[in-house]
Amino acid sequence: NRDWNRKELLIEWREAWANSVNQALFQYGFDLSVDHRTLEAQNIPLEPQHKIGPNQARDQMTRLADHQRIARENGLKLLNEPEIVLHALTQQQSTFTKYDIARFINRHSVDSEQFSQILPKVMASSELISLGMDAKNQKRFTTQTMLDLERTMLG
Questions:
Q1: What's the rounded Cα separation, in Å, for the pair 49 and 127?
Q2: pLDDT for the residue numbered 131
Q3: What is the C-alpha to C-alpha distance for residues 124 and 54, in angstroms, rounded to an integer?
Q4: In what order do the strands lie in the sheet with 139-143?
Q5: pLDDT at position 55
Q6: Strands 128-133 and 96-97, how do they pair?
Q7: What is the DSSP code (8-state) at residue 94?
Q8: Is 43 left (phi over 0), alpha (psi -120 to 50) or beta?
Q9: Over its length of 155 residues, how does the chain's per-residue pLDDT go in tens digits?
Q10: Number of helices (H) and strands (E), helices first, in the chain?
């Protein structure tokens, strides 16, 4: 049945999958969510990176070069606008750790030098709010924007 190949159906399936995952995450008390939408639709101004799999080495080398170009360009965006990191993290969860910040930066930067330049800028952002230690003795953070949104919701 070729109707199953329609893009609209794929988007519908992705949304249904995200809803199911988010329901389970909520049910089990996780303060995070997944989003099936593109980075652009989430208002995250980064270029999507290619997924690099283990097959077809020749194709991977081409993709790797493109992946590194995109990572370098995205890293420059994060360096110039560190609040992008915080915005992207709060699209998935209301609070996060320094590890979450570092993991995001690592995924969207080209190398350790670029990472080392971005992390301190994010940690120094006036948008970043420290919430103290969590039950696992990890320092948790949120953003001023998230706190303002929660205050608005409380009335």
A1: 26
A2: 95
A3: 37
A4: 96-97, 139-143, 128-133
A5: 62
A6: unpaired
A7: S
A8: left
A9: 777 777 778 888 889 999 999 999 999 998 889 998 888 999 999 988 766 655 666 666 777 788 899 999 999 999 999 999 999 999 989 999 999 999 999 999 999 999 999 999 999 999 999 999 999 999 999 999 999 998 998 88
A10: 6, 3
- Return the beta strands (E) in the chain as ranges: 96-97, 128-133, 139-143
Residues sharing a CB contact under 8 Å with residue 92, sequence separation 6 or more, in sequence order: 32, 33, 34, 35
Residue 40's φ and ψ, nearest 5 degrees, are -60, -45
The residue type of 48 is P
Position 88, amino acid: A
Torsion angles phi and psi, residue 143, rounded to 5 = -120, 160
Predicted pLDDT of residue 67: 86
Helix boundaries (H) for 28-93:
57-80, 83-92
Q: What number of residues does the chain have?
A: 155
Q: CA–CA separation, 95 vs 82, rounded Å?
A: 17
Structure tokens at 2: 């070729």
CA gap 142, 79 in Å, rounded: 19
Helix 83-92 and helix 98-107, axial crossing angle in degrees, nearest 10: 110
